[in-house]
Amino acid sequence: MDYRPDAADPRFLLEQVLDAPARLRALAPFAEVDDGLMGQVLEEAARFVGEVIAPLNAVGDAVGARFDAGKVTMPPGFAAAYRAFWQAGWPALACAPEDGGQGLPWVLEGVLYEWLTGANHGWTMAPGLLHGAYECLKHHGSAELKARYLAKIASGEWLATMCLTEPQAGSDLGLVRTQAAPQADGSHRLSGTKIFISGGEHDLTDNIVHLVLAREPGAPPGPKGLSLFVTAKFLDDGARNAIHCERIEEKMGLHGSPTCVLRFDGASAWRVGEPGRGLAAMFVMMNAARLHVALQGVGLLEAAWQKARAYAGERLQMRAPGSGRTAGEADPIIRHPAMQRVLDTERAWIDGLRVLAYHTGMELDVARHHADPARRQAAQQWCSLVTPVLKSLCTEQGFAGASRLLQVFGGHGYVREWGIEQHVRDARITLIYEGTNEIQAIDLLARKVLPDGGAALVALLEQLAQEVDGAAADGPETTDRLHDAARLTRELVAAAGRQAALPYEAADDFLRATGLALLGWAWHRIARAPGAQDARWAVPHQALRLRVLPEYGMRAQILRNQCRAAAGARVD
Q: In the chain, how long is the greatest CA-to-CA distance?
């Protein structure tokens, strides 16, 4: 019943479906990356995650992080596993060689963190923000700050946090009150309280680096008055900084990850980037961070699926329809259509979401490294539009799918012995952090689609429709769905001009409909790949067409009803 990463499926999707080695070799930093190298990295990552990280999942949940007098002790085995992790070079996978990194494509890091989350979500929260902190300092930090922190963060020798939320300031960061008082030596002193800080205090590393949003004296109210600062648990001379952990939260899940309340009492800190540009400095890491969270949803869903598949293969109950067994004999429940339906449907979600996430991960690198500015811009456009869709779609399915897979266990799934209930508890937070899924939907529709009249998203959907092979089995329906999603976007843009509240009411359904259209495209790519006719891929593809994609029609109808209502028409 233990989670075991398997490199075979991700390799098939990367090599056969997405042609990743050739696409990545076209980028100068990855000219030496081929399928052999990618396969070797993935195989070794699967071994490490399965042997070192996965066995600690149960103890992390049962024992949890412990708080005592301002100090946090992590669950047994966590510190040793983290030491092995950073000393083996895993945090540095996608960091630049000049910073001590390995300079490999982001998508390999993405697969690694998908597996880490499936193996042990609580443990994975500790290194989860390392690459984001690295990117932020690399792009916005001064030479002095880079020299002080960058190599330690790139290697993972020091862990990092992101300190945004305050008791009165969640999604509305314009309400942040933490103050940053400038000092004569160019530093600042931070004063204020931050909440929900993952890994704000622990015993995994010798130091913890914090990126903190705060206001300087005289800064205007709202988001434009926020600046970004870097500080650390220990200063250069070894002295303890004025940062105090007041408590850790008692949570529904993620017991192995301390969620801290941090109090800054005049802590020494240094500004990152320009005054009043704190959110801009933070947003350099947002696409990658949100894609990481999307892959957390996929990883947790895969872990739940593995447990349910193993249990269903062993649990004997009744005769399956058409099995030919005599009265009193029993079949493994995997032969029963009700259980096959659940397993095949969630498999379809996992495979399709992986294609979308891996493709987006490669587009992140294209946006950074491609020689053609137009291609870089197109990649950035893809990431901007698709990342909020993925963050929402993957995490919702990670939670809902894990809950459905728990059903395979019956009453056994509700008790702790089998571990499936932990995945349901752990997955729930992914719908909330890194921007709630409601925020993702508003970001997509109100901030990215409406400002240009839907032109960018319509162009993307029409381009995907043109790529579809109309002669393939599901080609016509995939093309029709993408064209309809483009039409729906235009209709919603027009209706939004008549009712200001409409985009905010329709945002969730619009994101879901867009995501389902993209999921159909992803599976069309899978179905065209060599070997995809095997039952391994054909069975979940059929489940997708029968039980997943029909939801698109329902969401489209809801949105068109809202558009008609906004125009004053009756909706029956």
A: 87
